[in-house]
Design goal:
Elements lengths: L2 H16 L3 H14 L3 H22 L7 H27 L3 H11 L5 H19 L5 H26 L6 H12 L5 H17 L3 H10 L5 H17 L8 H10 L3 H17 L2 H26 L2 H5 L9 H10 L1 H14 L5 H4 L31 H4 L2 H6 L7 H12 L3 H12 L2 H14 L3 H20 L23 H4 L2 H13 L3 H12 L6 H13 L3 H14 L4 H13 L3 H14 L4 H13 L3 H14 L4 H13 L3 H11 L6 H13 L3 H15 L2 H10 L1 H6 L7 H12 L1
Helix pairs in contact: 1-2, 1-4, 2-3, 2-4, 3-4, 6-7, 7-9, 8-10, 9-11, 10-11, 10-12, 11-13, 11-24, 13-24, 13-26, 14-16, 26-27, 27-28, 28-29, 29-30, 30-31, 31-32, 32-33, 32-34, 33-34, 34-35, 35-36, 36-37, 37-38, 37-40
């Protein structure tokens, strides 16, 4: 059986377990075991099936066990684990995924424990401290380089040791706790262990390891706590059906929810994941709209503006008005402002820039994608020496939260590949900006004391995004950024996310990012827990409207209207919904209410006219359309409305006059068709043929034209046209086209 088939079989077994069809699941596991007999796994399954049969036997006799629910849950926990073991024993043979490649290597390596790795890393950390005391010189640099390489190799091996580790026992968890609590080990080493453990759990469910991660969420070392927190969120999403079988997990999260600091960190991570789902859209806009527009403008700006005018001493403060005019006229100013707003909000605006800079040898090593940025790392150390070392811009660049750890390494490699003269020039140009960036960072920190925590959360989520989207073998991994945005639905998260302030924050993030289905669910939950605001009902209505549920949207808008009377946005939405639902009389009532607050709003006047038109009160409709034309004589929407309404009320001379104007202002297929209808009513058949032909050309095909014409036959009958003539008119049109 191929690895793909094995994984499909495992998913099938999972589906049986989720539907509580335990016998079917057991039978399918037997099929897996039969492919490669494993005595240990087979014995576990036999014991499980025997216990299940006993339970069924006593249940059938009416002799249920008081502990039956716990026994039942344990059976499900065990069948899940046995399924995983049986699948993995087969996949270990010939799966080409990175996890099983690394696992095969680990299985043939000399046995090393986590405590052994810890001792080695501590010695290396002590050595670095000692070497820092030595005099500067070639010998010190050589020894530092050698020790750094040894440390990097140890850390890499430890990463794979954790990544491929088997299901944890108590001793392993104790070793993990000792490692994380150690006061000598560098925080970066602990971060790598947490990332490796998170990846391991993505591959194989392990309740003990999840409990450990939950404990680490309260680590005093904020970088470590953040990695654990960001890791547990997708873990509970991936294993949504499995985690409820382990009440200790939800109990631990409930305990954590009593801590305000953890709650804040958790919600920031959740909103970070929601924001990450927008990255592809942002990248697409940058690549397809903003950057091409800038490239088009580049030669124009070069001609219009002297380079030294805006690169001089005052260039950064005084923008050339000609340059600004060019940007305004192109529409690029608004797009750049939007880009700036996204950046301020924390959106991943640099993904498109750095996505093509992940081909360096450094990124061929899986573990390197998770490394916190370290200027002492052997791969980038040369950059932080000599002239580059003294650059405040370079120093600030790597302290800033603007780019994530992975992108900082990419940036370094790009700079290091530059010819020396370009590198020096770049350092000179950017050096002056370093102090400014530092100043901005200090101001940001003073305004937001949680700035450091927020920056680390944002950077680590972006590091994960780079890994799952850009790693050359990313299809080997469960892409956590393809998981549904269901954070408000995960029951284990409820002690945190159902707190009204947090639920409202999550709902708003969903809503602002146009995730309307998720926003609707979150706002519904929120409205059940707090005194409903008009805003909640408005947003629920808007979500439903965007999802096509107009009746449901109207109900919510009406709820909102009861709470907040005479909200003009709301009145407009209610009226629009009634129009869509073919209830023009009620729509008219709301548009008339809206008119009291916006008497000169042309859209309101037009819509009132449309309501009268749909009610076949043509004279009233024309009065409103003429009013719009009076207020704005070039409003083609008013012309179309007047022309069509005049046609329906048999005022063909008025209709003819207005269609003549419309046909001079970018007419469409319907305009030509309607103009043809008017001429037909006036018995100007030759003009009818001419306009119908133009309509067919604009529609693109005879089929499209015929469909439009067929829709209007009833209206032509009402206008007094003998529609038997239509096939003759169409044939004449076709002959004239030959």
């Amino acid at each position: 059986m191929s690895p793909t088939d094995i994984n499909k079989k495992r998913e099938l077994i999972y589906s049986y377990i989720e539907k509580k069809q335990l016998k079917s699941a057991i039978d399918k596991v037997k099929e897996l075991i039969a492919l490669q007999y494993n005595w240990s796994i087979s014995e576990k399954l036999t014991e499980l099936e025997t216990n299940y049969k006993f339970m069924l036997h006593y249940l059938a006799k009416g002799q249920g066990d008081p502990q039956q629910d716990k026994i039942y849950d344990k059976l499900f926990r065990d069948i899940y684990n046995i399924t995983d073991d049986a699948s993995e024993s087969l996949l270990l043979l010939d799966s080409s995924s990175i996890f099983f490649e690394k696992l095969r290597i680990q299985n043939v390596r000399e046995a090393i424990t986590l405590d052994d790795y810890k001792d080695t890393l501590k010695k290396q950390a002590d050595t670095i401290k000692f070497l820092d005391l030595l005099e500067e010189g070639e010998e010190k640099d050589s020894r530092l380089r050698k020790n750094s390489l040894a440390h990097e190799n140890t850390l890499r091996d430890l990463f794979y040791f954790i990544y491929t580790s088997p299901r944890a026992n108590n001793d392993f968890i104790e070793s993990l706790n000792t490692f994380i609590d150690d006061g000598v080990l560098p925080v970066n080493d602990k971060c790598m262990v947490i990332s490796a453990l998170t990846l391991n759990i993505f591959e194989r469910f392990d309740a003990k390891k999840i409990l450990f991660l939950l404990d680490v969420c309260r680590s005093p070392q904020i970088e470590v706590a953040i990695r654990a927190t960001i890791g547990i969120i997708p873990i509970f999403q991936i294993y949504r059906r499995r985690c409820p079988l382990y009440p200790e997990l939800s109990n631990r999260l409930k305990l954590l929810s009593d801590n305000i600091g953890f709650n804040r960190m958790f919600i920031k991570a959740v909103t970070g994941y929601i924001r990450a789902h927008e990255t592809e859209k942002i990248t697409k806009r940058l690549n397809e709209e903003i950057i091409p527009e800038m490239m088009k403008l580049s030669p124009m700006i070069g001609k219009k503006i002297k380079l030294d005018e805006w690169m001089g001493e005052s260039g950064l403060d005084e923008k050339n008005p000609e340059w600004q005019k060019i940007l305004d006229e192109s529409g690029l100013t608004d797009k750049l402002q939007e880009f700036s707003n996204l950046q301020m909000e924390g959106a991943d605006v640099f993904h498109s820039t750095f996505s093509n800079l992940k081909n360096y040898p450094f990124f061929k090593e899986l573990s390197n994608w998770f490394l916190p940025f370290d200027p002492h790392h052997s791969s980038v150390r040369p950059m932080f020496s000599g002239e580059m070392k003294s650059s405040t811009m370079i120093e600030s660049m790597f302290e800033t939260s603007l780019i994530c750890n992975s992108d900082k390494y990419s940036f370094c490699f790009s700079i290091m590949l530059m010819p020396e003269e370009y590198r020096s020039m770049m350092v000179g140009q950017l050096g002056a900006e370093g102090d400014e960036i530092k100043k901005l960072q200090e101001e940001e920190l003073s305004l937001n004391p949680n700035q450091k925590q927020d920056s680390i959360i944002k950077q680590y989520i972006q590091d994960l995004y780079r890994f799952f989207k850009l790693h050359p073998r990313n299809t080997n991994f469960k892409d956590i950024f393809n998981l549904p945005l269901n954070f408000h639905d995960i029951e284990e998260f409820h002690p945190i996310v159902l707190q009204p302030r947090y639920l409202e924050e999550i709902a708003l993030y969903y809503f602002e990012k146009n995730n309307f289905r998720e926003a609707l669910g979150a706002y519904k939950m929120l409205s059940e827990r707090v005194q409903p605001k008009s805003e909640f009902w408005q947003k629920m209505g808007f979500c439903k409207q965007m999802m096509g549920d107009i009746r449901g949207a109207l109900d919510d808008y009406l709820h909102a209207d009861l709470i907040e009377d005479n909200n003009t946005w709301l009145l407009n939405r209610i009226a629009h919904c009634y129009r869509v639902l073919k209830e023009p009389q009620t729509a008219l009532q709301y548009y008339r209410r809206l008119e009291q607050f916006r008497p000169d709003d042309l859209n309101v006047q037009l819509n009132i006219g449309h309501c009268y038109l749909e009610l076949k009160q043509y004279d009233e409709a024309l009065n409103y359309y003429f009013k719009v034309e009076l207020l704005n004589s070039n409003n083609t929407r008013a012309w179309r409305s007047i022309a069509w309404c005049a046609f329906l009320s048999n005022k063909f001379d008025v209709a003819q006059n207005y269609y003549a104007r419309i046909l001079e202002n970018k007419p469409n297929a319907h305009d030509y068709l309607n103009a043809g209808h008017v001429e037909l009513c006036l018995n100007h058949n030759s003009k009818t043929v001419e306009f119908y032909k133009l309509s067919q050309n604009a529609a693109g095909s005879l089929e499209a034209f015929n469909s439009m014409l067929e829709d209007d036959i009833e209206l032509l009958n009402e206008a007094g046209v003998d529609t038997k003539i239509l096939p003759i008119i169409v044939d004449k049109m076709l002959y004239d086209s030959e």
